[in-house]
Amino acid sequence: MMAIExxxxxxxxxLTAVNGEALALKELTGQPLVLYFYPRDDTSGCTRExxxxxxxxxxxxxxxxxxxxxxxxxxxxxxxxxxxxxxTVPLATDxxxxxxxxxxxxxxxxxxxxxxxxxxxSTFLFDSAGRLVRAWRKVxxxxxxxxxxxxxKDLVEGR
Length: 159
Description:
This protein has helices at about 45-60, 75-85, 100-105, 145-155, and strands at about 15, 20-25, 35, 65-70, 90-95, 105-110, 115-120, 120-125, 130-135. The protein is an alpha+beta fold. It has a single domain (about 15-155), classed as 3-Layer(aba) Sandwich (Glutaredoxin). The strands form 2 sheets. A 7-stranded mixed β-sheet has the order 2-1-5-4-3-8-9. It has a two-stranded antiparallel sheet with strand order 6-7. Strand 4, helix 2 (about 75-85) and strand 5 form a beta-alpha-beta unit. Helix 1 (about 45-60) packs parallel to helix 4.
């Protein structure tokens, strides 16, 4: 499986926004973009991650960056998740797994001796030209959103 590498352009893939409309990744270029993939709505780590990105969203926006969380959960499930936790971070659905394949986050996992396919918690930072500048794989949630914000500051300030 070929996963996107640093320096490569954002894939021409469509996700589904919470309102059910198609959301083309290519249309999100023109400003820095943080795209984070997470396993499931309303699980402890995923909730914490969405809350952390929501808490920092105004700082990302002040730097001109967009943030988008992606999972396989349906738009309706995303809406319930957003309402339940007053999330401000936008979420999108990758129902057919196209984006997950392109980003190399649909991986074999194991729990309690059973193997299964699932989403590897990962974050990708694209510059305003739509090129991947940084990838975080096998993300640990505590402090992650702050690390990503620092990387966006570095990108925007040319450090």
